[in-house]
Amino acid sequence: MKHIILIISLITTHIGIHAQPLLQATANSPDKVLQSELMVYNNDTKGSFEDGHGKKPYLKALGQPPKKVALLSFYLFDPITSVNWDGRSFCMYSESNFTDEGHNKIANKFLDTSMAQLKEAFKTYGMELLTPAEYLTDDAKREAYDKFANPHSGLPKFLVSDKKFKNASSPDGYRSFIIQYPDDNKASEEFGKLAKTLEVDAVVIIGNDILCESKSFQINKLGIYMYGPNPVPKKDDATYTNKHGMGYHEGHMYVGFELDLGGSIFVKHKKGAITWQDYSGYDKLCGFLIKNIGEFLTAATNNK
Q1: Measured between alpha carbons, how far is 254 from 43 in angstroms, rounded to an integer?
Q2: Can you give the pTM of this predicted structure?
Q3: Which of 5, 182, 189, 262 has its CA 20 to 30 A from that of 160?
Q4: Which stretches of the chain drop beneath a pLDDT of 50?
Q5: Is 41 helix (H, G, I), strand (E, B) or coil?
Q6: How far is CA 171 from the centre of its chain?
């Protein structure tokens, strides 16, 4: 079996959530413990400009959180086995212990047990979460969705090439748009443009990084990422600065949150047979991230 070793990041210290808890136990952690495990993307408005240029969206132009939000992708990704050496994290891509069928079944279970709560959590902040059946309402939208290519630029494009995504799966009706570099400029713009094509105010991607070990399946990271069109329409007669990516971008990352779950176990198995499974608490963890997203957007879009 070939392994591709890539240096991807410095090791981070895990605080509060210990190695290999059960998923439900992690979900019952106090908010301050979960808060210490957050990785945040684009959760400030510094560096945004009223005329709409720049890498960050001028969210005040929205006036309120996006009303119609499409759940563009929900996926499980079994990417790596991490090996620590000399203060750096080396990642070895390998074959998944999941079969495609097994991967899909577990993806369906995760979404089925949380969809009602996901919709309710977004509704709390004035946002309606739409499934593909609800936003792919004509042939043009379906074609745009089906033909959309997972976009990245530069080094991220190499590191997240489709060849490394064979260990990913989504529930029925969804595609896997793997997020490894959430605020990549090209990806952010293309996702934002797709939202406009789909006639929604924003799109959301929910990603679950999992690890399939010999005796258990664990979830290492849960991420929820939101992208949307540039809130400020482009003016044909305007001149935008185009230095270091600071020109006008048609789409942006609005905000994203990732939660380190410390290898929380949701399945135990022996000799290929599942002996125990429990997805309890997953909806609560999603709700925690959506609360952070909603509170940020409520404040950031307030133009009064």
Answers
A1: 8
A2: 0.85
A3: 262
A4: 1-18, 81-96, 155, 158-159, 161-164, 243
A5: strand
A6: 15
